[in-house]
Amino acid sequence: MNDLILLSWFLLGFLIVRTLIALVNAVSRPYLSEATKVDLARVSILVPARNEEKNLPRLLHSLLKLDYPNVEIWVCDDQSTDKTASLLQEWQSKDSRLRFFRGEPLPPSWTGKNFACHQLAQKASGDYLLFVDADISLSPQALQKALAYFRSHRLTLLSIFPQQKMQTTAEKVSVPFMNWALLNLLPLPFVLNMKNPLFAAANGQFMLFSATEYHENQWHEQVKDKHVEDIWIVRRMKQAGKRVAVLLGNQDVYCRMYTSYQEGLQGFSRNVHEFFLGSRLLMVLFWLGLMTAPAVIFLSFGLAGFIVYLFILLLNRLLVAWASRQSVCTSLLFHPLNMFFFTHVMIHNICLAINHTGKWKGRSINI
């Protein structure tokens, strides 16, 4: 058996493994379920916000519509240069549950979001701390469901990847990349059931903690210099034997993450290598496998082998779309463009690493 055929079997096997992972994620239904009655423990909803005047109204509207009465909402205006502060002042005057403050200047060795979250936790008085990003929205039942899931599974952290709402062609090209990578590479039930930090995942857009455990461990301070704080926090938790679960948002947690191709490129390029255990070498090897597999399999096995490969690839994409609650037709149609976007993101990520710096929300960051 020559080297080309061996490579073909490896690439085909890797696709089958990824499809099995996608199947596990699809059939395990990793969503919040209907809530049973829970006592109304106090929840502090904590929002780090830097230059979020466009996103905050949608988030705040959903938070104030929650069917869970015992909440306080704190927003940290993280040195914004837009109209975030004046917008928050207006909303604060309408509802006593909402309060905001201007964050302190960023100290050395901290990233902006970690420092904002650290300050928010110091303000919070709740039994639970829910950190959410300004670009998400919650259904009225989302918090009740999340607390019920948290308690029934005896968790230290519950994190949710929001359902992505996409309106423009540019969003359909860029945004599906995140769930495609997540659901191809990580069986979500393993995050809860495996202690190995290899199975670490989280999304900083929605992270629910026990306040007692958070204050004892100061999770954001532990990873204060990390730009992908969510994954690093889970790695620390797993090393400490804590229980973590990761779900998909379905209709309960959703967002319009990026509204343009350029926003998606800048956002994903900061940390795409973290999908591959923080290794850019693994990222490039993964990309090479994706790009070369069709030609290599065709040369080794002919048209019949190529058709088998294509069928499994389509099944993989269908399963990811189904689990993500995305349009199957749109997902299949845009898959080649999603792979082009991944290529662009990977190249940009490597360029940022070579230069050791990038920009995010007007701040320079080390990559």
Automatic annotation (TrEMBL):
Keywords: Glycosyltransferase, Membrane, Transferase, Transmembrane, Transmembrane helix. The keyword Cell wall biogenesis/degradation does not apply. Residues 44-174 form the Glycosyltransferase 2-like domain. Its EC number is 2.4.-.-. The keyword Cell membrane does not apply. One of its GO terms (molecular function) is glycosyltransferase activity. The chain crosses the membrane at residues 284-312, 332-354. It comes from the Bacteria. This is Glycosyltransferase.
